[in-house]
Amino acid sequence: MKIGAAxxxxxxxxxxxxxxxxxxxxxxxxxxxxxxxVMPEMSLTGHYGTDDLLHAAMTCSDPRLxxxxxxxxxxxxxxxxxxxxxxxxxxxxxxxxxxxRWQDLSGSTRETGIATxx
Length: 118
Hints:
It is a single chain. By secondary structure, the protein is of the alpha/beta class. Helix content is about 30%, strand content about 20%. It has one domain (about 5-115): Nitrilase/N-carbamoyl-D-aminoacid amidohydrolase (4-Layer Sandwich). The chain is built from 4 helices and 4 strands; from the N terminus they run E-H-E-H-H-E-H-E. The protein has a 4-stranded mixed sheet. Strand 1, helix 1 and strand 2 (about 35-40) form a beta-alpha-beta unit.
């Protein structure tokens, strides 16, 4: 098994730019005949503060993730993003945070890594 690790800084607040960066790394991985390519933590969404968290969250069925999976083909690619969903319990806020926006969320988020490929 041939494994590669990508090292790059995500573009802040620009998921589409990060998708383009991922596609470039996936193409490079194919060129190196990798079986597994691991991207940095939160590589698609970047590290957001709690004010931007909901803007950055995406579902696992997001077309951008599907595009990455299609490009990966038979190479396994691990990417990091903030997953949007219901019923996830995560400690995202400092203790004692009383921001009402977070108290009334109908959904919640978690940091997620997705492995693509077969």
